[in-house]
Amino acid sequence: MLERIARHLLCSSDPESMSVGELLALEPQSIQGLNDVWLGYTEYPGDPALRRELATLYRNIDADGFIVHTGAQEAIFSFMHSMLASGDHLIVHMPGYQSHYAVAQAMGVDVTPWLAREESGWSLDPDELDAMLTPHARAIVLCSPHNPTGYVPTRDVFDAIVEFARRNGLWLFSDEVYRGLEHDPATRLPAVCDVYERGVSLGALSKTHGLAGLRLGWIATQSKNVLARMSAFKDYLTISNSAPSEYLSKIAVRHTDALLDRNTAIVRANLDVLDAFLARRADRFEWHRPRAGTIGFVRLKLGNAERFCADLLERTGVLLLPSTLIDHGDAHVRIGFGKRNMPDVLGRLDAYLDECAA
């Protein structure tokens, strides 16, 4: 992986993390609890106490409406294999996270990309969905807040997507791993699982909480069918989750507001630095400022993304992600602004551009 080679990451999708000690410090009495964690098998849908904590993040989902997974990736893989089959049709919000479409394609599912419109701030047009519908359509994959653009639909667009799915009896799988990291909390949308009976919301502690090392993800849904089929499929994956991870995750979820405040503060400060950089380098780059999350999608005005990223990495050790790696042409790079050291790493990019100009 390039991340192993790079000395400076400027494409990270997750925010600043913390140590186990820092997390335990949020509840000093929890140290003894960690010592007492039993290292046997845990319950396959997740620790009941953890699922009760997760339920506080939703409006209409109780502890029985969750399956806890080893990261969001496993949950995506499980949903695709549980709810879709070869010959089915899937509509996918793109550009996007590769697993949203590649897992289904590998299964023989027909995937139609629902392209976000760069010229209108990476927005989605629900009126396009009717033309994409086929008799074999089974589901829509939505990513909101969006990876990699940071787009958040308006409430009207969101409601139109839900209504289209309901009218056509489609599953609506909504990747919401950045939900909570809206730069303006007023733009936060409801979780799909709270408003749609065939909605499946994907959550994780990697993004909003900044705790990727816990490897903790989940799906939340009102659908007993989804819960039953995904539960059975999980028996062929990890079976159950890590007991220490689930214990630490309970602490993290209880302190969601504090962790969101911490990570949002870092993001806002870094965005100010990034805004100034992009304004100064307007001859080289342009973007639609993200509304949420820790990443943005920047268009190159000169050259192509793959060659630019390769040369930058070789000469500076700074890693950006070219759009070729997410199957979206060769004109964009993904940039991350969730880490405390982003201004320093951005300075290395700035110096590289000066050197190229000279």
What does this structure look like?
Keywords: Aminotransferase, Transferase. InterPro entries: Aminotransferase_I/II_large (IPR004839), PyrdxlP-dep_Trfase (IPR015424), PyrdxlP-dep_Trfase_major (IPR015421), PyrdxlP-dep_Trfase_small (IPR015422). Pfam families: Aminotran_1_2. Its EC number is 2.6.1.1. It is an enzyme of class 2 (transferase). It is a single chain. The chain folds into two domains: 118 residues, Aspartate Aminotransferase, domain 1 (Alpha-Beta Complex), CATH 3.90.1150; 228 residues, Aspartate Aminotransferase, domain 2 (3-Layer(aba) Sandwich). The model has no long low-confidence stretch (mean pLDDT 96). With 358 residues, the protein is an alpha/beta fold. Strand 3, helix 6 and strand 4 form a beta-alpha-beta unit. It contains 14 helices and 13 strands. Strands 2-8-7-6-5-3-4 form a seven-stranded mixed β-sheet, with helices on both faces. The longest helix has 25 residues. The two termini are 31 Å apart.
Provide a brief overview of the structure:
This protein is α/β, with parallel strands linked by helices and 358 residues long. It is 39% helix and 16% strand.
The structural domain count equals 2
Average pLDDT figure: 96
At CATH level 3, the topology of the largest domain is Aspartate Aminotransferase, domain 2
Work out the helix count: 14
Q: In this structure, how is the largest beta sheet organized?
A: 7 strands, mixed
Radius of gyration: 20 Å
The CATH homologous superfamily of the largest domain is named Type I PLP-dependent aspartate aminotransferase-like (Major domain)
CATH class of the largest domain: Alpha Beta
Task: Give the total of beta strands.
Answer: 13
Any idea what the CATH architecture of the largest domain is? 3-Layer(aba) Sandwich
Organism: Candidatus Burkholderia verschuerenii
InterPro entries: Aminotransferase_I/II_large (IPR004839), PyrdxlP-dep_Trfase (IPR015424), PyrdxlP-dep_Trfase_major (IPR015421), PyrdxlP-dep_Trfase_small (IPR015422)
Keywords: Aminotransferase, Transferase
Domain Aminotransferase class I/classII large: 10-337
